[in-house]
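Fig. S4 source data, part A: sequence.
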Amino acid sequence: MELDRWAARALDSLIAKVETVSSDAAVSRRGTMSARPSLMTVRIGAVALAALLSAPLVACDKPGEKGQNAEGMANMQAQEARDEAASKAAEAQAEADMKIVAARIDFEKAREAYTASRQSDLADLNQKLAGLDIRERAATGQTKADLDRKLPLVRAQRDAFVADLSSVTFDTAATWDETKARLDKEWDTLEARVDQM
């Protein structure tokens, strides 16, 4: 606003000088040469004034440019926020994937350890059954009759346990606790039956 007032005063001053020079130029046509430097000064002054007046126009923002710049900055910030969120989501997903893989590995190790432990128990049980087979052959009377009746049942129960144990490889972590509890119960029953013989 103050710049506009200053420019208006400067323009008024320039017009007054041009009028003075014009009147001086009229006098100089009659024979004096003193008006020429004044006319050049006026022209230089007019060009300088025009430059001064046009400078604010060139430097001024175009209408709506601030709004467009603000919108552009907001869009850029929004894109940066989206990129950062996507990056954090990717990092979180990678971390979750790593935890899932670690949990699967732990489950596989636990399942293999359980299977190995039960295979060892089965080896001991098979030795006991081999001892019972020898005892059955040597036994007579009621002992032989009891062993002849019980040993096939124990072997069938053992075979069922072996089949269930071998199907453990198809179990998932979600069903593992239930499967393990069922197998433990089967084993306890089988072992107790063999120990009673």
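Fig. S4 source data, part B ends here. The longest helix spans residues 65-138.
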